[in-house]
Design a protein that fits this description.
The chain has 424 residues and is mainly alpha-helical. Helices cover 53% and strands 6% of the residues. It has three domains: 86 residues, no CATH class; 136 residues, no CATH class; 165 residues, no CATH class. The strands form four sheets. It has a three-stranded antiparallel β-sheet with strand order 3-7-4. Strands 1-2 form a two-stranded antiparallel ribbon. The chain has a two-stranded antiparallel ribbon with strand order 5-6. A hairpin with a 4-residue loop joins strand 5 and strand 6. Bound molecules: zinc ion (ZN). The site of zinc ion has 8 residues, from helix 5.
């Protein structure tokens, strides 16, 4: 069946009939060449056959010319398409059905994501279940999260206290209490649906402003990773994104801290400070090329130092002792397995000496930039230690004392802590 242009004359109909007359035995697949049709019909007043052919279409009654979806005729507009169509065994789908299929695929994808989100990202009333330390940790990782719930595709990179084992423990506990959801694996259909709607989430683009490679994720897309769950309040209201941070702030500022939280936060402060001191020891070890063994005596010493001394005073002491140790090792040419204990011994003896004398470490040395202030430390200082924006100038004991002065304590905690004070 041929579809002719509207304004066609009888002679042009004949020309078009010749144009679409097929002949399987001929080389081109058609009976008449374009040249011969023009030679035959142009003198009789027909327009050129290529002009007419462009405005016509051809759809013989064979399977190759029907849309497999709607069964409507799917004609071709050129001889080349005709040949391709008759020689291929591809299923034919008409333009309308292609856009219908696309539309349906998009709708299906939307429904799949919607379902998945409903099942996996439910809002939970977790605010009552998390303790002060967990609330602080959650604030550390959510305060910069203004858009959807996606936090990171690699939870190991999230920095809270800067101490890996402690950060992982806090994250796990927040996942357990349903403040966070970790999607380790995505079902194939969800991954495909997200990709269809929002593109490949693994695509990395270069960010000119920061000069870094970043992953852009549409907030509606779903990828493997860690998510902040929406929060249900007592009133039944659901809160998301930055509004959760506001509520967390209120919680840590107004809620009475339990005895349990007091001891776990105390320990965290101590751990952060000890970790900082360990970083300083590594720093002087490198600078003065002094071997220092990560031994039990060193850890015990740092534990004691973190509790009672300020990191910036200790850094001065470490530097002096490392310099002396280096000179001593050089002079003494002690074997490595002995030399690596000198620094710890030398610092330990010195601290013992000043403690016996009842004097203090007076000189300070500015901490190197490699000793970073963790988000936990920064947030804690901002909330409780007015004016002391880092802990380089405070011992763990001093940090805890300032904190307890600035925080509301639960009855049980008050009782135990006042007992401790009277016993001293
Ligand atoms: Zn169709």
């Amino acid at each position: 069946m041929i579809c002719y242009p509207k304004d066609v004359s009888d002679i042009e109909i004949e020309a078009l009939n010749d144009y679409w007359t097929t002949d399987t035995s001929s080389h081109s697949g058609f009976t008449f060449s374009i040249k011969s049709i023009d030679e035959n019909y142009k003198p009789k007043g027909s327009r050129s056959i290529s002009y007419l052919a462009q405005r016509s279409s051809f759809g013989p009654n064979s399977n190759n010319f029907f849309c497999s979806d709607c069964n409507n005729k799917a004609p071709v507009k050129t001889r080349t398409s005709y040949i391709n169509r008759t020689q291929s065994d591809q299923i034919i789908i008409c333009g309308t059905c292609i856009s219908d299929r696309k539309e349906r695929a998009l709708n299906d994808a939307r429904a799949i994501l919607e379902n998945y989100k409903e099942e996996n990202f439910r809002a939970w009333p977790y605010i009552e279940n998390i303790n002060t330390e967990e609330a602080l940790a959650l604030l550390c990782i959510t305060s910069s999260n203004q858009k959807g719930g996606f936090l990171t595709d690699n939870p190991c990179e999230l920095l809270i206290t800067g101490i890996k084992s402690l950060d992982q423990k806090l994250l796990l506990s927040l996942i357990e209490k349903k403040a966070l959801t970790f999607i380790r694996d995505l079902p194939d259909n969800v991954e495909r649906a997200s990709e269809l709607l929002y593109g490949d989430y693994n695509r990395i683009s270069y960010d000119r402003r920061s000069g870094r490679h970043i992953k852009y994720n549409n907030p509606e897309s779903i990828a493997r990773g860690l998510y902040l769950n929406a929060l249900t309040l007592d009133s039944g209201i659901e809160v998301k994104g930055s509004d959760i941070s506001t509520i967390l702030y209120q919680k840590v500022q107004t809620e009475a801290v339990s005895l349990e939280s007091v001891s776990s936060i105390k320990q965290t402060i101590k751990d952060i400070q000890t970790n900082k001191l360990f970083g300083l020891v590594m720093e002087v070890s490198e600078e003065y090329r002094v071997p220092i063994d990560n031994s039990n005596p060193l850890r015990a010493l740092l534990d004691h130092l973190a509790e009672h001394y300020q990191p910036q005073n200790l850094f001065y002491t470490f530097r002096v002792k490392a310099r002396n140790t280096a000179a001593f090792i050089h002079k003494d040419s002690a074997p490595h397995y002995i030399a690596k204990h000198y620094f710890t011994k030398s610092v330990g003896n010195f601290i013992q000496y000043i403690e016996n004398k009842g004097s203090e470490l007076e000189r300070v040395w500015t901490l190197p930039v490699s000793i970073e202030t963790s988000p936990f430390e920064a947030l804690f200082s901002q909330l409780y230690l007015h004016g002391h924006f880092n802990w380089h100038k405070l011992s763990a004991k001093e940090i805890v004392a300032r904190w307890l002065d600035n925080v509301k304590l639960a009855e049980s905690a008050l009782r135990v802590l006042s007992d401790e004070t009277t016993q001293k």
